Automatic annotation (TrEMBL):
Name listed for the protein in its UniProt record: S-acyl fatty acid synthase thioesterase, medium chain
EC number(s) given by UniProt: 3.1.2.14
Gene Ontology terms: biological process: medium-chain fatty acid biosynthetic process
Segments forming a coiled coil: none
Ribonucleoprotein keyword on record: no
Subunit structure: Interacts (via C-terminus) with FASN.
InterPro entries: AB_hydrolase_fold, TEII, Thioesterase
Organism: Chrysochloris asiatica (Cape golden mole)
Keyword Lipid metabolism: yes
Domain Thioesterase residue range list: 21-248
Family: Belongs to the thioesterase family.
Amino acid sequence: MGARPGKIVNCLYQNPKAIFRLICFPWAGGGSIHFAKWGQTIHDSMEVHSIRLAGRESRYEEPFASDFFHVVDEIICALLPILQDKPFAFFGHSMGSYIAFMTAARLKERHQLEPMHLFVSSANAPHVSVRLPIPEDKDLTENRIYHFLATNGGTPQNLIDNSHLQEHVPVLMADINLMRSFIFEIQSEAVLSCDLTCFLGSEDELIKGAEAWKAVTSGSFDLHCLPGNHFYLIESSIENFIKEYITKCLELTTLC
């Protein structure tokens, strides 16, 4: 039996008067807390929910997921009860962009539900064949992981600098292996019809195919390049810009 919905979806700041719900999807190695805290500072028209994957936080005792599409199906089961009564949008960063995208695609296909807007961050389009030089499990050492993270920008600097980095290696590698099970082939027709915005850092050398996201939706597409690397959004001023941008996008959509 899967995890209870309340363990998968984390809403730290419930807002019954909210007009919209924003569902956030974490980066590789990440938990739900960072984005769940957005609910405290985002506009009061929004209620923020953040996805918690197996093997971390209150799901610590659960085994890490190994099948990308099983994760998506589990998330959909948890989200369905809270997506029926209010418009919603998805935001994903890095690995979270791909989980958000496939969750949106399967929601539309199987339940005729679609986010108002899909916001992706620090991620190449899902059909772009760009792969990181991921070390194999057998090659893992703390120094090798440190070098990989520092070189490729896949994890925030504060985690890289943490003296207990080795404790985070299993979570990070579980998510890297999870991404190995994700394959998406572009189709003749766009799988989504919602608007899509892609954010990326100006110094992020990993992102070579962000513009190709426009092929997955028949809705409008925008690309925003912001100062910084793969984790540009950790900067508080940029994070605030993104939250304000999301709010304005959703408010404008309801006026159209």
